[in-house]
Amino acid sequence: MQRQPTLLSSCARAATAAEARFRISPPEFALRSSRVIALDERAAELARSLAGRPWRGGRFLEFGELRPAAGELADAVLLGADGTPTLLSAELDGADLAVMLATPGARAEAASAVGDACAARWITSVGLVVGAPGEAQDVVAALRPNAMVLVSLRSSQDVAEILSALRI
Q1: Band (4; pLDDT cuts 50, 70, 90)
Q2: Paired residues of 58 in beta bridges
Q3: What is the DSSP string of 66-134?
Q4: Cα–Cα distance for residue pair 15/17, rounded to 1 Å
């Protein structure tokens, strides 16, 4: 008896309806509880333009002002996409991912406050820096110790793709 080789498309054609019921369907990804925090005004404009898109559980916020430390960590006032103020500590409660969005005008103390708050809560922190490499050196240096993952982007058009890949 001569055997025929199994072709890549053979498995799909060989499955009958009875066999198909034993296939494992991949589960839907769970919704994320993500926070995208713009650290400066240019990043806030970008965040506001992205906030209107359909996302899977992400909230877009703008870093407002640093509050004096009441305990070990400093807190900060954040502004929601609609301008409503909230506290960084309240926003990070229950969050599983924080993305810090920055341009060359970002302040180091903003990155430090968000990064320290994420580290204290074991929340994954991602830094996205938008700008030419030469002009973004200072903000990259400020984010480096405060983000678990740091990505430098030349174009703001890439931010939506990265947020989508992170399942924001």
Answers
A1: low
A2: 34
A3: EE--SSSS-EEEEEETTS-EEEHHHHHTT-SEEEEEE-TT--HHHHHHHHHHHHHHT-EEEEEEES-TT
A4: 7
d(CA 151, CA 142): 13
Q: Which two tokens stand for residue 167?
A: 């399942």
- In this structure, what are the phi and psi dihedrals at residue 158, rounded to the nearest 5 degrees? -80, -15
Does 16 or 116 have the greater pLDDT score?
116
Homologous superfamily (CATH) of 30-165 is Tubulin/FtsZ, GTPase domain (3.40.50.1440)
Res. 73: pLDDT tops 90: no
Entry pTM: 0.80
Cα distances (angstroms) measured from residue 55 to each of 36, 160, 161: 11, 10, 12
* Residue ranges of domains in the chain: 30-165
Residue carrying the six token digits 């990155």: 111
Give the full edge-to-edge strand order of the sheet including 75-80. 85-87, 75-80, 58-67, 34-38, 97-102, 124-130, 149-153
- Is a pLDDT exceeding 80 seen at residue 6? no
What 3-state DSSP class applies to 33? Answer: coil
d(CA 159, CA 17) in angstroms, rounded, equals: 42
